[in-house]
């Protein structure tokens, strides 16, 4: 279940409630948000937008990525946001779900 990330399906409820988006930086645990905000000057940028179920860092780094690299990828997404970029990321997520690429 984790390999295909099906365990994340309940988060669609959060999208329907407006607490999350389909695409955007993945939310961090509060303790990590505080820690990363102090460690990485650009980290607070990602807090300005609604978190997403899937994001640029997840598609391009998965689980094997440093917090600094994740922050840079998330900020790249924020700076280059477009509907087409979101569609591309959704298609990338579908590929990961069906192939298991990037899964633990």
UniProtKB/TrEMBL annotation:
<dbReference type="GO" id="GO:0016780">
    <property type="term" value="F:phosphotransferase activity, for other substituted phosphate groups"/>
</dbReference>
<comment type="similarity">
    <text>Belongs to the bacterial sugar transferase family.</text>
</comment>
<protein>
    <submittedName>
        <fullName>Undecaprenyl-phosphategalactosephosphotransferase</fullName>
    </submittedName>
</protein>
<dbReference type="InterPro" id="IPR003362">
    <property type="entry name" value="Bact_transf"/>
</dbReference>
<dbReference type="Pfam" id="PF02397">
    <property type="entry name" value="Bac_transf"/>
</dbReference>
<feature type="domain" description="Bacterial sugar transferase">
    <location>
        <begin position="1"/>
        <end position="98"/>
    </location>
</feature>
